[in-house]
Specification:
This protein is mainly alpha-helical and about 70 residues long. α1 crosses α3. The radius of gyration is 14 Å and the shape is elongated.
């Protein structure tokens, strides 16, 4: 499942960059590329959100890796 961790982490980083762009420059990269709340942009937001929820599980696994 290591590939899933890396995939989810990549999506969370992309989401963080997008939120940074929104916060600093009021520029939504996902909306710019795929349209404002089209089905594809909503799917991207949902997938990034699910990845963020999945990454919560890393807190439980960090202590067990030592």
């Amino acid at each position: 499942m290591k590939w899933l961790d890396y995939f989810a982490l990549t999506l969370v980083i992309i989401g963080g960059i997008n939120w940074g762009l929104i916060g600093f420059f009021q520029f939504d990269l996902v909306a710019f590329l795929f349209g404002n709340l089209t089905w594809i942009s909503r799917a991207i937001y949902a997938i990034v959100g699910i990845a963020g929820l999945y990454m919560i599980s890393t807190y439980g696994r960090i202590g067990h890796q030592e």
